Amino acid sequence: MAKIKLTKNELKRQKDALKRFERYLPTLMLKKQQLQMVIRQVEAEAREKRRDRDSVYTELNEWIAVFGEEAGVEGKIRMRELVTSDGNIAGVDIPVFEKIVFDVESYNFMKTPLWVDKGIDAVRSIIGLDAELQVLEVQQQRLNEELQITTQRVNLFEKVKIPETREHIRRIRIYLGDQQTAAVVRGKIAKKNLVQEEIA
Questions:
Q1: Complete domains list, the chain, with CATH
Q2: Tens of pLDDT along 152-165?
């Protein structure tokens, strides 16, 4: 425990600190709850995107071998840009998925198989879902880091700072009370001595 001065000024300083800690703690707890709720939402959204991606894979599984044919999808589509915007949740800057820009190589509709269009759509869908999952993972990572910091702060205030400050206040009050009692006793002794001197 830190060494404190046993004075009225220190008592006031400790009381002010306690008020600050007790005022700040509910805000931190609210932020912690909000972060936990948003993390659960991001995790649920990521699970949904994985399910969507898996269903696209399952749907394509029957004819995916066709992609390997001569006039297949390979090389016809490429992701040019992943567009994200900046979001803020409980003071945490996170990327928010906006869209993906693709480059689709032009091809001769007469010479390519009919399934190439569906294949390009499927690849576009899979790449899009993978990109959304990457953005969600970054969101989750940043939110988890902030949750850890916020939890540490809540614990610091709840388990260390507030009890420590209360103990300081208690010790200062006891000391000041003892000093006041001693001053009263000294005053009574001095008064008694004055009275005895006047009598003698």
A1: 8-192 (1.10.287.3240)
A2: 999 999 999 999 99
